[in-house]
Design a protein that fits this description.
The protein is mainly α and 171 residues long. The protein has one domain. It has six helices and no strands. Helix 1 runs parallel beside helix 5, helix 2 runs antiparallel to helix 3 and helix 4 packs antiparallel against helix 5.
Length: 171
């Protein structure tokens, strides 16, 4: 189990290092797409094992938990597709990003984050009803930690706007 978490952490660090090594220049779209797909495939493959190992659910509770988890995971995957589209749009337009485009992209991310929070709240309720508040809280603690790794890896692949801020300071 620790090797899975260590693998995910190392993957996030490697992705962050790849961006830092290339400076603050725009990440090549093919490389970005490849990194994201590798990260998503590895995470989804390991996530069920990690959750299984850390949750230690007994049979009656597990029978109620896993069907809800599968529905939740499918919705999370769709939501992450939306995130990927937003980040990809930003990455594709980074070199020529206008104020209007930046505003639209940030508003899309705010909407995405709101949807992610709403999805978590919805499923916290479903997990709580089917199992217990403690089991639901435990799952979302695990989920939060895994999401932090994903967020770090995504952030590492997105060029920083601060590079462009000096252009605006002279206007």
């Amino acid at each position: 189990m620790r090797s899975r978490l260590r693998f995910l952490f190392v993957l996030g660090v490697l992705l962050a290092s790849a961006l830092m090594a290339s400076g603050q220049s725009q990440v090549q779209q093919d490389d970005f797409d490849k990194y994201v797909e590798i990260m998503r495939a590895d995470l989804r493959a390991d996530k069920v094992g990690i959750v299984t190992e850390l949750m230690k659910l007994k049979a009656p509770e597990a029978d109620k938990f896993w069907p809800i988890y599968r529905k939740y995971d499918a919705e999370v995957a769709m939501l992450n597709d939306e995130r990927f589209k937003i980040v990809k749009e930003y990455n594709e337009n980074f070199a020529s990003l206008t104020d209007d485009q930046a505003k639209v992209l940030v508003e899309k991310m705010f909407a995405w984050e709101k949807h992610r929070t709403e999805l978590r709240k919805k499923y916290f309720g479903e997990f709580t009803k089917a199992t217990s508040p403690l089991t639901a809280a435990k799952f979302f603690q695990i989920e939060h930690r895994l999401n932090l790794l994903v967020d770090l890896a995504v952030a590492a692949e997105v060029p920083g706007l601060f590079v462009k801020s000096s252009e605006h300071a002279h206007q």
